[in-house]
Amino acid sequence: MQRVVLYDTTLRDGAQQEGISFSVDDKLKILRRLDRFGIHYVEGGWPGSNPKDVEFFERARGIPLQNSILTAFGSTRRANVAVDEDGQLRELLAAGTRAIAIFGKSWDLHVAKVLRTTLDNNLRMIDESIRFLRSHGREVIFDAEHFFDGFKANREYALATVRAAADAGASCVVLCDTNGGSLPHEVEEGVRAVCAAISKPVGIHCHNDGEMAVANSVLAVLSGATHVQGTINGYGERCGNANLCSILPALQLKLGLEVLPPASLRELTALAAYVAEVANMALPASMPYVGRSAFAHKAGMHVDGVLKAEESFQHIDPALVGNRSRFLVSELAGKSNIAYKAAEFGLAERLDEGKRRELLERIKELEAKGFAFEGADGSVELMMLRALDGYRPGFELIDFLVLVERRQGRGLLAEATVKLRVGDEVYLTAAEGNGPVHALDAAMRKALVPLYPQLANVQLTDYKVRILNEDKGTAATTRVLIDSTDGLHRWTTVGSSTNIIEASWIALADSLEYALAKGYGKEGLETGK
After folding, report:
1. Using one digit for the tens of pLDDT, what is the confidence trace for 167-189?
2. How far apart are CA 83 and CA 76, in angstroms?
3. Can you tell me the mean pLDDT for 486-492?
4. What is the DSSP string of 69-97?
5. What's the CATH number of domain 5-260, 3.30.70.2200, 3.90.1150.180, 3.20.20.70, 2.60.40.10?
6. pTM value?
């Protein structure tokens, strides 16, 4: 069975993505997690490019890696500098890593117009740099930069550069689609030509500018490559790098190649989420394999099919990559969606067929008015609870009044008055806030927290507003999603109205009613938090 080596460059190439700025501590955290996951090589950065990477390599020496080989990245010697006088190569050695990756030019255009040197000198630069680093006991991986563009422009010269690297002692020659514009058939031709030209392992490094990086990487392996470079979540400059979170399961689950132990693969979704969190980037829900929506089913027919045979509408078992199936409730839902959700919430035995049918019709009616329940499980479960015989809400809304005014000397002021019924009692409270929703929240809590102290532990963590029919301008329908937590549980509720305050009021009230119905917040009272 062919063994494929994974080489992660999240800490170097991935850090070049717009919006990402890893601290040294961030990079060390990700290094530890990649090592635990089992990535074979982790590229830590370019020690000659900035003080942060110098510090990273210094601190990384104190981390006992179990599975990964930490790798420093740099370039061949400069065109007009002797190899033993090149400061950048000295800094690569000073990083103290077992392996070093250096890139060199494989496209004659770059040699002439970027390096401004001769083709022969570029070959000497590759040869001498690799031999120099090898003479100091380092494993050297050679990245043939712009290989596929160079292969199309001057096939013989591009092949000459990889031969020079192989002959000089590179442990692996990696073919780079640096501009990210190559198509799969071009990658296949280039990889096969290099595999025939050298006896060393061949690698692939793709960028995603043509949205082909994953496909090109997989086809490169099918064409003979045994070393794959990429980043977690596809982070990288411009349109990103090849996404290892898609490549790994494709190689292992689809092609049956030996890459990592199955137990590691089951940690893939958690790894993707962890790196996204450290990078302070939202993990796209639609990301294949590891995204929240990767195995989410909305159409009633699809849900019915998956419940009967999971493989009917899923290309793999989600558990193999640490993900799970999700069944959404929306206007496209069928009876199977409602049945699954009822079972998920532990209400299957208490909701008969008639109640489920009524719920489905109610959901479709509300979605026609702008509600969206597929991302608001709190509101969905609350609707099911309300349909149960004997359910009594913790409170009922009667009226609210919100005033927003600008007063000289005080700036903007928001004030809310709410009237609530709890049992047989009616409570009228008022509160100020830094905005109308904050004032509403404060007024409701002013009435409810003395009666339900656990609500003091419930906090809003996110507030999202979406305008549904922009052509209506300020009269448009508004949808509000509110995320809440008590520190242990998280839930989302939804409201919709042509009035943004009413939409917020609905979502806010649902959030607090749901917390009471589920008994959330009580753990905080018991622990004194």
Report:
1. 999 999 999 999 999 999 999 99
2. 9
3. 86
4. EEEEEEEPPPTTS-GGG-HHHHHHHHTT-
5. 3.20.20.70
6. 0.69
